[in-house]
Amino acid sequence: MHAKARRSARRRTAVAGALVAVVVAGFAVRLVDIQVVNAQEHLDNRAAYSGIASTQTLYGTRGSIVDANGAVLASSTMQYAAQFNPQNVKDLTREDEDGEEHVVTWEESAAAIGEIVGMSGEDIEKIVSDALAANPDSEYAPLGKKLSTEQYRKILALGLPYIHFEPVQSRAYPYGAVAGNLLGFVGTNGTPLAGYESAQNACLEAKNGSLSYQQGSDGLIIPGTETTKAPVDGGTLQLTIDADLQWYMQQMIAEETQNQGAQSGAVMVVEVATGAVRAAAEYPTVDPNDFGASKEDDRYSRIFSRTFEPGSTFKAITAATLLDQGAVTPSSSVTASGFETFPNGARVGDSFSHGTFNYTLTGALIDSSNVALSKFGELVPDETRYEYLQKFGVGTPTDIGFPGEESGLIYPPDQWGPQGHYATTFGQAFTTTMPQVVNAYQTIANGGVREPLHIVESCTTADGEVEKPELSDPERVVSEDAADTTIRLLENVATQGTLADQVAVDGYRIGIKTGTAQKSDGKGGYKAGVYFTSIVGVVPADDPEYIVMVTLDEPTRVTSSAATAPALQKAMTQVVKNYRVMPSETTEEPLPKFAE
């Protein structure tokens, strides 16, 4: 080739290359303009063209409630409601792995859906055709059944733009009615309505996320338009309740309530050293899986909402107060008959008729003498007894913080009046709740230190952070010596009282105190012949580990606190078995009931 021809070819090549570079540069500039500089404008225009901009809620899962050992008491399961958009149902063009296009017909897709959900393809097609027959413009045709997560994922993998899904959460309570009054329940829309489902909603509640995107006219998501805000699942709420123990206590208290012909019954078990509530069972109760099957009054917890005069159970608190003040010893004595009128005009009687006895403090508790306790109570000022009652927890809700928990009521001494001056020594003229009575006994059994009662152990958030509830600091209420001596008195009640044989737990030293409280008639007096009965047990008495309390409202077979004795014996026996409490190795020397 001549040199001139070669130079001409090179020039043509250079010119062509320059033209290509210019064109490429133009495309690059335009591409930057479309994808970067004016990206949002073009997306908006494209959305306007398609007319479809969508936001889908991404649902977080409500947290679980577990017992002290991790057993699941409440959990959420996810199902999915599926619906077709009949306007978008059509045959679809797909590419296989080799890039070859093929058509997937609506009939084929319907058959695939039907196989996953257990329906025929014809039934799936009919859902859409029926919707269009009813309304040619219909954009909604529900599948008509909830899908499991597995079914949802299989259908989603088909990549069908005309079927959409909405997550539907359901709450399940695997143990049924066990701890139902504590757990509470949620409504059909997932709203917490009672119990710890409501009180601890901040822990359990999930935070929903969202998926926003734009669709083309064919219903497919336009690539690059997706914006995702991830959901956050709820935390795990751990309770101090032992599900197995709770189950036993619910069966037992249901049986005993019915045996005694009572309106309702309850039993609590508290760990002395920690204040942790291990069981809080009651009858009637509620199954959170079907709360509508229970009467409305039975759907909540009477343990926390009911107040009552504690009656003779608080004679132990009077004794602890007197011992802490140094006003008495177990052998200190007073003379008391079955009924007396005091100088201020107050009239006090015991539950049984008897002559004049020279009761020791021990004997006054064994026979539960109101008259003797009235005389012992006068050994310290009313203001002092009032302060001790407050320190033991009367008039203040416990740290449990259960929804609707009452505080009880106690008036200051200047409002006690002549009768209240004496009645407060034996558990009348003020009201408490069951947890308050249990907490008072926990204080005595714990060497005089009051630990805050609690049922919530912790909340573990979705990212693993463990949050503990804020509880009051432990508080010394009485001296260790006064507390230990009071336990000795209670042990003598268990061994020398009329219920000794009924409450005995083979191999264990125990302490008990009963209470037979009159019920207000709402008119300033008391109902005739009906009582709110209770009994509190300490086990083992030589090294207290658990407080057990039983209550029965208006028992009719046995109307006194003796009605609660069988339930207490069964409950304490189960507690020592459940926690493998070592039997007592010593026996306590009995204290004298009467002074010489």
Mean pLDDT: 90
Largest sheet: 7 strands, mixed
**Using only CA atoms, what is the Rg?**
37 Å
CATH architecture field of the largest domain:
3-Layer(aba) Sandwich
CATH topology-level name of the largest domain? Beta-lactamase
Whole-Å distance between the termini?
145 Å
**Overall geometric form:** elongated
In total, the number of strands is 23
Low-confidence stretches: 46-51
Helix proportion: 25-40%
Number of discrete helical segments: 19
Task: Just give the CATH class of the largest domain.
Answer: Alpha Beta
Structural summary, described in words:
This protein folds into two domains: 56-239, Penicillin-binding protein 2a (Domain 2); 243-578, DD-peptidase/beta-lactamase superfamily (Beta-lactamase). The protein is of the alpha+beta class and 596 residues long. It has 19 helices and 23 strands. The protein starts with a helix and ends in an 18-residue tail after the last helix. InterPro entries: Beta-lactam/transpept (IPR050515), Beta-lactam/transpept-like (IPR012338), PBP_dimer (IPR005311), PBP_dimer_sf (IPR036138), PCN-bd_Tpept (IPR001460). Belongs to the transpeptidase family. Its main location: membrane. Residues 59-189 form the Penicillin-binding protein dimerisation domain.
Short structural summary:
The protein has two domains: 56-239, Penicillin-binding protein 2a (Domain 2), CATH 3.90.1310.10; 243-578, Beta-lactamase (3-Layer(aba) Sandwich). It contains 19 helices and 23 strands. It is elongated and about 110 Å long.
